[in-house]
C-alpha cells in the first residue's frame, strides 16, 4: 500500500482512517477488510485490486500466461495488469497473500519461476481489476413535514470537504455486529452509530429496525488527486422527527429542505456556486424526487437484488 503523509490533515479525521472497512467485490460479496485510509486512496482505487493483494476466489479455471503469478482469461487477455510475481517462487507468493487481512478459503493457481504450474488446493481465482471496493451506506432522513435533512460536510473532512449531502454517509466496520448481512442489519446498525456520531441523534431515536433498506448503488468518484470513493452504497430511508446535536468536526451546517429548495441548491451546484457530493448528485438525478413523491409508499422502491451501476 502507498505511504501518504497525513500530518497536515485534521487529527480527529486522521484517527478515523484506521477504521477497518469491509472489502467486497462488484457483486457485494465480502472478500476481506482494509483500513479506511487504504480504501480511500485513489492509487488503490484505480489499480487492479490484485496489485494490492485482494483476490476474489472462484471455481473457474484460468490458464497461466507463463509468468510467475500471472494468468490469462478465456480470451487470452491478462486477468490482472499488475500480477503478483512471487519473489522466490510460488510459496513466497502464497505466504504474501495469506499475510493480507483477507483470509482466503481457497488459494490460487500460479507458476513457479521455472514455469512449472503449481495448483494450491483445487480452486483458481479471478483477480479483481477495479481496485479496492468497500461497503458503504447513505441515509436519507425526512421529518414529518416531508422535508429532507441535508448536511454540509465540515472543512476538516478528508474526502469532499464543504460539500452538501444527505443526512449521513459512512461505512459499516469489519466487526461482528456490522458484518451481519441478513436484511442488511449490520449496515443499519452502522447507520445508527454514525447518526449518533455525526448528528448527535440519540440512539433510541434511530433504532436499526426503523431504518429502512431500499436498494444499493455502485459508484466511483475522486475527491482530489489523492483521495476518493469506490463503494457499493446501501440506500437507507427514514421518516421521523429527531433530536439534532451535530459534531462540528463532522458537519459544517445542516438544514431541512423542501423539494423546491433542494432543486435550487442543485441548480447552484450546477453553476459552481456550491458543491454537493457526487453520490448525492447521482441519487438526486435518478431516484430521490420519485422516492420523495411517494414517501408513504416507500416499500414499492425496495429492491435488494439489483445493484444500480452509476
Automatic annotation (TrEMBL):
Top-level taxon of the source organism: Eukaryota
PROSITE patterns xref list: NUDIX
Pathway: Isoprenoid biosynthesis; dimethylallyl diphosphate biosynthesis; dimethylallyl diphosphate from isopentenyl diphosphate: step 1/1
Segments forming domain Nudix hydrolase: 132-282
GO molecular function, one term: metal ion binding
Known EC number: 5.3.3.2
SUPFAM superfamilies assigned to the protein according to its UniProt record, in alphabetical order: Nudix
Comp. bias (Gly residues): 67-76
Coiled coil residues, start to end: none
Subcellular location field: Peroxisome
InterPro entries documented for this protein: IsopentenylPP_isomerase_typ1, NUDIX_hydrolase-like_dom_sf, NUDIX_hydrolase_dom
Biological process per Gene Ontology, one example term: isoprenoid biosynthetic process
Gene3D superfamilies registered for this protein in UniProt: Nucleoside Triphosphate Pyrophosphohydrolase
NCBIfam families documented for this protein: IPP_isom_1 (TIGR02150)
Summary of the function given for this chain in its UniProt record: Catalyzes the 1,3-allylic rearrangement of the homoallylic substrate isopentenyl (IPP) to its highly electrophilic allylic isomer, dimethylallyl diphosphate (DMAPP).
Protein name, per record: isopentenyl-diphosphate Delta-isomerase
Species per Swiss-Prot/TrEMBL record: Sus scrofa
Upper taxonomic lineage: Eukaryota, Metazoa, Chordata, Craniata, Vertebrata
Amino acid at each position: 500500500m502507498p505511504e501518504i503523509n497525513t500530518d497536515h490533515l485534521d487529527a480527529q479525521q486522521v484517527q478515523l482512517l484506521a477504521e477497518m472497512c469491509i472489502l467486497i467485490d462488484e457483486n457485494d460479496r465480502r472478500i476481506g477488510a482494509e483500513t479506511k485510509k487504504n480504501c480511500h486512496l485513489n492509487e488503490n482505487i484505480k489499480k487492479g485490486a490484485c496489485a494490492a493483494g485482494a483476490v476474489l476466489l472462484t471455481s473457474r479455471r484460468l490458464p497461466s500466461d507463463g509468468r510467475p503469478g500471472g494468468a490469462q482469461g478465456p480470451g487470452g487477455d491478462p486477468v490482472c495488469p499488475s500480477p503478483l510475481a512471487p519473489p522466490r517462487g510460488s510459496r513466497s507468493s502464497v505466504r504474501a497473500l495469506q499475510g493480507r487481512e483477507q483470509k482466503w478459503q481457497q488459494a490460487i493457481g500460479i507458476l513457479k519461476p521455472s514455469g512449472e504450474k503449481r495448483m494450491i488446493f483445487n480452486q483458481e481465482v479471478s483477480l479483481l481489476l477495479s481496485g479496492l471496493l468497500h461497503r458503504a451506506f447513505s441515509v436519507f432522513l425526512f421529518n414529518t413535514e416531508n422535508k429532507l435533512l441535508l448536511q454540509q460536510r465540515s472543512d476538516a473532512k478528508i474526502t469532499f470537504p464543504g460539500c452538501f449531502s444527505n443526512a449521513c454517509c459512512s461505512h459499516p466496520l469489519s466487526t461482528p455486529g456490522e458484518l451481519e448481512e441478513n436484511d442488511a442489519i449490520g449496515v443499519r446498525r452502522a447507520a445508527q452509530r454514525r447518526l449518533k456520531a455525526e448528528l448527535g441523534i440519540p440512539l433510541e431515536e434511530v433504532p436499526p429496525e426503523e431504518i429502512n433498506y431500499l436498494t444499493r448503488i455502485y459508484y466511483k468518484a475522486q475527491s482530489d488527486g489523492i483521495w476518493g470513493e469506490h463503494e457499493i452504497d446501501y440506500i437507507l430511508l427514514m421518516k421521523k422527527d429527531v433530536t439534532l446535536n451535530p459534531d462540528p468536526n463532522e458537519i459544517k451546517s445542516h438544514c431541512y429542505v423542501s423539494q423546491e429548495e433542494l432543486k435550487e441548491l442543485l441548480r447552484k451546484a450546477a453553476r459552481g456556486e456550491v458543491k454537493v457530493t457526487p453520490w448525492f448528485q447521482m441519487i438526486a438525478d435518478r431516484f430521490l424526487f420519485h422516492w420523495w413523491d411517494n414517501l408513504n409508499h416507500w416499500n414499492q422502491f425496495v429492491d435488494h437484488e439489483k445493484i444500480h451501476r452509476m
